[in-house]
Design goal:
Strand content: 5-15%
Radius of gyration: 37 Å
Mean pLDDT: 76
Number of strands: 16
Helix content: 40-55%
Distance between the termini: 53 Å
Length: 838
């Protein structure tokens, strides 16, 4: 028997039985295959167990495919680089949060170990971050005002030890609440709530927080202490009033360290071979500062140092979780911290996953961050999350798996066990310089420039968040920005986009007449597209817009001697209608019927049809007035107008001077309006018609150009006007005489009316079977030859975008096959709607 191919990676070396052995003597063939089946089931069960285990331990995914020779060295280098970076940064951020420096090292140790096992991102570097530290320091000092007077959390003044201990308890309890929120959001799959925090909100918030953080650290560079202030104007006033206390030794030393860090970051960012310099920059200035204290004894000359740091691994703090008397104040802070951390962490994790071509499970990532914070809160760590700067260094250093994060944790653990006495002599101005150099990346001024170019409304939200954080407070500024973002969502939902659409000449495509001014409107009927679901918040506004369109179109159509008979609603973008919208549509149908206008629905989805049918709106409207496409609805309505002897001549309507987008007059051309005159009846459309194969790209590459226009097409056939016989369906209408030059002939229909047949030589389509619930006769509603039909052409609207007779509406210049036209059917009810309308 041939050997079976292994169903598992050879590098795992699982002790599976060898299936390639032939049956032993005395074994039947049936018994052999039974054993093979049992072994295969064992193999499948083993793989199912590993897949099940990967749900709880995402590290199983990269462990199963880990390539030692290719990845191990890169992971070690990345882990060491981030470890050298996080040690001084963690100590700095802990001081920013008002906690002892060792808490920053704790936050970069155990949470990193846990996250490397349960996190789904392979390059995310977890630990203390600046914005979170600022939020914690601000809110906890509001809860415990006495903590704001502590100048050195590492060595509080006599009588302040108990206050600092209470402050540490609050930080651990806050971390526990954030961990609970993280886990709850991930388990119940509520990560979508971060969608309400747009990048404009977070960008403005982080930029404002960066300036606030920087001003809080300037005191270590200047060498004097100032009281804690939140608002920019108060901080600036305090520094100006205390400038006489400036210490030149601290200023020169801190400024030098800041300059070194900025230069090393610039070199590491712009020179690929020297990118490691960016990671070791913070550790370099720490070594220089410690050497200056040990060799030059600068601490005796007024230079402040970190002070005592506890040696060893973190102590358990589970007993600090309860009781929690300040939960009413801590819980809102925990929500803000969780939302900000979640958006920052998931955004950088998604970017890294996309760049390294692997899948990131968002809810699993949130659960991983929650478990990492649970472990941290249980062992003396305050809130941690993914860091932008350290994650970028981790990725640039070549991290391939979570092993890099694991190595970073043990670098910090080594420092905690053996090197904390050395860092006790670290100057405080060194930590201040590290924070000041780190916040440069948080100033997202480029995002503000981008928003200015793309969307001014998003820029307004960005500025509200930025200025609110600077001039009011961190949490109020963030709340204002979130409120504005939610209001924008409500505004966009309550005032959806609607458009009056016309047909592109020579095609069956219907587009907004403001975007395509040469699109043709048809007197006697109006087509409006609604680009949003209809529900209680927007249906009244949509109804008012429809009434405006109706008033304008009645005037425009009446100037051409034809009353407005049909109002066609393109429902293709409408995915949902609620009870309020259904009731309003029922009122609209009855109001239009009293004015002599028939409402027509085109291309409604199955869900919309079901809702209308259950509310009996389909019976009130009439099932014959629901169509699969706008083009079919217009053809049917035009045929009804023609049977009544009304001349139906489509023509282009320009935004200015035609009653749409400009004045509400008759639409006569004004010489001073700058708009081309309306074509006289019977004339060809005043647009350039270019064969689809004649498109070519311009030499500059900026769009497409076309050769000189071809000869205008033959004028469209006209129908002579005859006395009207009433509304469609009221009785047989007399056949109007066709124009002398028209080769179409009129045939009698089974209903006693008349149909239009194509000229000789044009194949006639077979009659359609009648649909259930439809009162439209197949012969009366038979398809007709498109009297506006022209050769396959491309219409060039404003902006050099070529439009072709396809569903996409956008062409790149190459010829495309003509799509088949849908059957000219009026729907017979909800059951007759094809699945393609979903």
């Amino acid at each position: 028997m041939p050997a079976l191919a292994p169903r598992f990676p050879q590098r795992l070396n699982f002790p599976f039985p060898d299936d390639s052995k032939a049956p032993e003597t005395g074994d039947s063939v049936r018994g052999y295959f039974r054993k093979m089946k049992e072994r295969h089931q064992h193999r499948v069960a083993t793989y199912a167990f590993l897949d099940w285990l990967a749900v709880f331990l995402p590290c199983v995914r990269w462990l199963r495919t880990y390539q030692v020779r290719k990845w191990l060295l890169s992971d070690i280098v990345a882990g060491l680089s981030v470890g050298f970076m996080v040690v001084p940064q963690g100590m700095s951020y802990a001081n920013l949060a008002g906690l002892p420096s060792v808490y920053g090292l704790y936050g970069a140790f155990l949470p990193c170990i846990v996250y490397s096992l349960v996190g789904s991102s392979r390059q995310l570097a977890v630990g203390p971050v600046a914005v979170t530290s600022l939020l914690i320091g601000t809110k906890l000092k509001d809860i415990l005002p006495a903590a704001a007077d502590i100048q050195s959390p590492n060595a509080p003044a006599p009588g302040q030890e108990e206050i600092q201990e209470q402050y540490n308890h609050l930080a651990i309890q806050l971390a526990f609440l954030v961990a609970c929120l993280y886990t709850g959001v991930g388990v119940f799959r509520l990560g979508f709530v971060t969608n309400f925090l747009s990048h404009a909100v977070i960008g403005g918030f982080t930029s404002g927080a960066a300036i606030t953080i920087g001003l809080s650290q300037v005191k270590y560079i200047l060498g004097f202490s100032v009281p804690r202030q939140e608002r920019l104007q108060d901080q600036a006033k305090t520094y100006v009033e205390n400038m006489h206390n400036l210490k030149w030794q601290e200023f020169i030393m801190g400024s030098t360290f800041l300059l070194i860090l900025v230069v090393m970051k610039y070199v590491g960012k712009n020179f690929k071979r020297l990118r490691f310099i960016r990671a070791v920059g913070p550790l370099t200035v720490c070594i220089i500062g410690i050497c200056a204290v040990y060799i030059g004894h600068v601490d005796t000359k007024g230079i402040k140092v970190v002070g005592p740091i506890k040696k060893g691994l973190p102590d358990p703090t589970v007993q600090w979780w309860f009781p929690m008397p300040e939960i009413s104040t801590l819980f809102p802070t925990a929500i803000i911290v969780m939302l900000v951390d979640l958006l920052e962490s998931t955004s950088i994790a998604r970017a890294l996953a996309r760049k390294n071509k692997y899948e990131l499970v968002a809810n699993q990532e949130i659960v991983g961050l929650g478990l990492a914070n649970f472990a941290g809160a249980a062992f003396s760590c305050y809130t941690t999350t993914g860091s932008f700067s350290r994650s970028a260094v981790n990725n640039e250093s070549g991290a391939k798996s979570g092993l890099a994060c694991f190595i970073t944790a043990w670098v910090v653990g080594f420092v905690l066990i053996f090197l904390t006495p050395i860092f006790e002599r670290l100057p405080m101005n060194t930590l201040g310089a590290i924070i000041l150099s780190s916040i440069v990346g948080l100033l997202e001024y480029e995002q503000a420039i981008y928003l200015w170019k793309v969307n001014k409304l998003d820029l307004f939200v960005w500025m509200a968040s930025f200025l609110g954080v600077l001039f009011i407070s961190v949490e109020i500024g963030l709340g204002i920005a979130i409120g504005l973002a939610v209001l924008i969502v409500i505004y966009e939902s309550a005032f959806p986009h609607t458009a009056l659409v016309g047909r592109i000449p020579g095609t069956s495509i219907w587009r907004n007449i403001k975007q395509y001014p040469q699109a043709q409107l048809t007197p006697g009927l109006m087509v409006v597209r609604i680009d949003a679901p209809l529900y209680f918040a927007n249906i009244q506004w949509v109804k008012e817009k429809l009434e405006q369109y109706l008033d304008h179109h009645r005037t425009w159509s009446a100037d051409r001697g034809i009353p407005l008979e049909y109002a066609i609603l393109d429902f293709s973008p409408v995915t949902h209608v609620d009870a309020t919208a259904v009731h309003t549509l029922e009122i609209l149908i009855e109001a239009l019927a009293e004015e002599g206008t028939q409402l027509v629905l085109a291309n409604p989805s199955t869900a919309v049809i079901r809702s209308l049918d259950k509310a009996r709106v389909c019976d009130i409207l009439g099932r014959d007035w629901i169509f699969v496409s706008v083009n079919e609805a217009v053809q049917f309505c035009s045929r009804q107008l023609a049977e009544r002897g009304l001349v139906v001549q489509p023509e282009s309507v320009w935004p200015k001077g035609a009653g749409y987008g400009g004045s509400h007059g008759s639409g006569a051309h004004s010489p001073s309006s700058g708009s081309p005159p309306r074509s006289p009846p019977g004339a060809a459309p005043s647009v350039a018609l270019v064969p689809a194969t004649s498109m070519r790209r311009s030499a500059s590459g900026a769009g497409y150009t076309a050769p000189p226009p071809l000869q205008s097409p033959t004028p469209q056939p006209q129908l002579q006007q005859q006395p009207s016989s009433g509304r469609p369906g009221s009785g047989p209408a007399p056949s109007p005489a066709l124009a002398a030059g028209n080769s179409l002939r009129r045939l009698p229909s089974a209903a006693g009316g008349a149909g239009i047949a194509p000229p000789e030589g044009v194949p006639q389509q077979p009659p359609r079977p009648s649909l259930p619930g439809s009162s439209v006769d197949p012969a009366a509603a038979a398809p007709v030859a498109d009297v506006d039909a022209e050769p396959a052409v491309v219409f060039l609207p404003t902006g050099s975008v070529s439009v072709r007779g396809s569903q996409s509406g956008i062409s790149t210049g190459a010829a495309s096959p003509t799509l088949p036209r849908p059957p000219s059917n009026a729907l017979g009810g909800a059951s007759a709607l094809p699945a393609a309308t979903n």
